[in-house]
């Protein structure tokens, strides 16, 4: 019984992650690839059929295959991701967050996330 419940949760969260990834294609604030990678991880644990459909999808499959095979991120995606992270974080620091310690935490998050994104090879 527990195993079936987990499969349903994985499918549910995988589908939610897929929706966010698709929205991320059109909204530059949401990253596409991490959501699609999360979807693939959740689907592989719950439904081989959904996982295969995702990997062989005409448009979305390439995001996952490129990352899985090359461990690389396209230069355009790196530039957009890091730029949006810093624009968003700096906006919060200067205009929204009143506490200095929270501003410091946001700076650390931005730096760590940027480092993580830039640590991957660039897909050419």
TrEMBL record:
InterPro entries: DUF454. It comes from the Bacteria. GO terms for cellular component: plasma membrane. The chain crosses the membrane at residues 9-29, 73-96. Keywords: Membrane, Transmembrane, Transmembrane helix. PANTHER family: INNER MEMBRANE PROTEIN YBAN (PTHR35813:SF1). This is Inner membrane protein YbaN.
């Amino acid at each position: 019984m527990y195993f079936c419940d987990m499969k349903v949760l994985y499918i549910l969260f995988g589908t939610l992650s897929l929706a966010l990834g698709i929205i991320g294609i059109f909204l530059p604030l949401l990253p596409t690839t991490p959501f699609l990678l999360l979807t693939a991880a959740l689907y592989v644990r719950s439904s081989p059929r959904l996982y295969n459909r995702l990997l062989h999808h005409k448009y979305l499959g390439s995001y996952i295959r490129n990352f899985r095979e090359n461990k690389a991120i396209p230069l355009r995606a790196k530039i957009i991701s890091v730029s949006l992270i810093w624009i968003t974080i700096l906006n919060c620091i200067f205009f929204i967050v009143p506490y200095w310690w929270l501003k410091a935490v946001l700076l650390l998050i931005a730096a760590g996330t940027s480092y993580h994104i830039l640590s991957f090879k660039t897909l050419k």
